[in-house]
Amino acid sequence: MSLQSTAGNLLQRAVELDGKKRYTEALICYQEGLQVLVDVLKEQDGEKRVYLRAKVEEYMKRAEQIKELIEKLKREGNFHEQIHVENDSIGHSYNSIFSRFLDQDVDNIRIEDPYIRTHHQCQNLVRFSELVVKKCTQVRFIELITVNSGAEQAKWLNEVQNSLLQRKVNLKITYSDTLHDRQITLSTGWIIKIGRGLDYFKAPQTKFSLGTFDLDLRPCHETTVDIFHSNTVRNK
């Protein structure tokens, strides 16, 4: 695939997401598409260069408008973005859902999820923690609130706790028998609510199926992801 085709696909996706008001995703696609398109522009001349320069300016203007809109909605306490994950769909790894909110400004995270109980659910916590450690260079504290389901769960969570401590991240585990809601709150104010919590992936068909390790290739259960900013939650 040529660089121009790559840029075109990214920018087309940006326009689609923009139309669905999935602004944070659209902004990432605009930015990535523009980076590629600028590289293409450098190699062109004549009418094609003029045309591509105009497209770059058009998409840059829209990207700036979206950035300003996101900040405006956050200030007003009206930010809400929703993603519908369809049954058996792929491309919804933790990286795809969370990474645009995970950066060096995040220093603590609160995870509320009653379903961090079984072996695979505790492994989901490990996968999410791996992403956090890579993306959030200043994170020092994670709080997990979940339901107590016995000694095996405690053993697995203790192992996660010890592993995070080696990365200078403290994991505090709190048990609640009444917890039902599932959400992840970042110190920067972003709140991500997933209907099924972290446990929205289907089991791989076999241990050698695609998607066993790369969660972007793993089919999902149907769920809804709602993204808010803390001002929105406080005002409600």
Can you tell me about this structure?
The structure is a single chain. The longest helix has 31 residues, at 46-76. A seven-stranded mixed beta sheet has the order 1-7-6-5-2-3-4. Helix 2 packs antiparallel against helix 3 (46-76). The protein folds into two domains: 3-76, Phosphotransferase system, lactose/cellobiose-type IIA subunit (Methane Monooxygenase Hydroxylase, Chain G, domain 1), CATH 1.20.58; 81-229, Endonuclease, Chain A (2-Layer Sandwich). The chain starts with a helix and ends with a helix. The mean pLDDT is 93. The chain has seven helices and seven strands, in the order H-H-H-E-H-E-H-E-H-E-E-E-E-H. Strand 5 (183-186) and strand 6 form a beta hairpin. It has helices at 3-19, 23-42, 46-76, 94-98, 119-135, 151-166, 230-235; strands at 80-85, 108-112, 141-146, 170-175, 183-186, 190-194, 223-229. With 236 residues, the chain is of the alpha/beta class. 25% of the residues are buried. It holds the Pfam family MIT_C. Keywords: Coiled coil.
Cα-to-Cα separation, first versus last residue = 47 Å
Number of strands: 7
Could you please say which CATH topology of the largest domain applies here? Answer: Endonuclease, Chain A
Class from helix and strand fractions: alpha/beta
Query: pLDDT below 50 for ≥5 consecutive residues: which ranges?
Result: none
General shape: elongated
**SS strand fraction:** 15-25%
- Broad CATH class of the largest domain: Alpha Beta
Protein name: MIT domain-containing protein
Keywords: Coiled coil
Coiled coil: 56-83
Domain MIT: 1-75
